[in-house]
């Protein structure tokens, strides 16, 4: 189940788990990024490339600060 919302009469968000409201309108995804997929197919490849080329986020931050 995904958290969904629909705007009420005052324009505030009403949260629900349903796909449609009582009036039959579609609800919208409440996730901050609608294109986010919990099934990240390429994370293994990104980690491998970072290890191979030694591109670690902590190292990059230190380079930018200096």
TrEMBL record:
Any single GO BP term: positive regulation of telomerase RNA localization to Cajal body
Keywords, ordered alphabetically: Ribonucleoprotein, Ribosome biogenesis, rRNA processing
SUPFAM superfamilies for the chain: Nop10-like SnoRNP
Molecular-function annotations in GO: snoRNA binding; telomerase RNA binding
One Pfam family recorded for the sequence: Nop10p
CC terms in the record's Gene Ontology section: box H/ACA snoRNP complex
Source taxon at top rank: Eukaryota
Region (Disordered): 19-41
Gene3D superfamilies: H/ACA ribonucleoprotein complex, subunit Nop10
Similarity-based family: Belongs to the NOP10 family.
Protein name: H/ACA ribonucleoprotein complex subunit NOP10
Organism: Pneumocystis carinii (strain B80)
């Amino acid at each position: 189940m995904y958290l969904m919302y629909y705007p009420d009469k005052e324009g505030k968000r009403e949260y629900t788990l349903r796909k449609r409201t009582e009036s039959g309108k579609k609800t919208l995804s409440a996730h901050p990024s609608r294109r986010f997929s919990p099934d990240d197919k390429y994370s293994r490849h990104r980690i491998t490339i970072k290890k191979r080329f030694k591109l670690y986020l902590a190292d990059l931050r230190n380079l930018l600060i200096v």
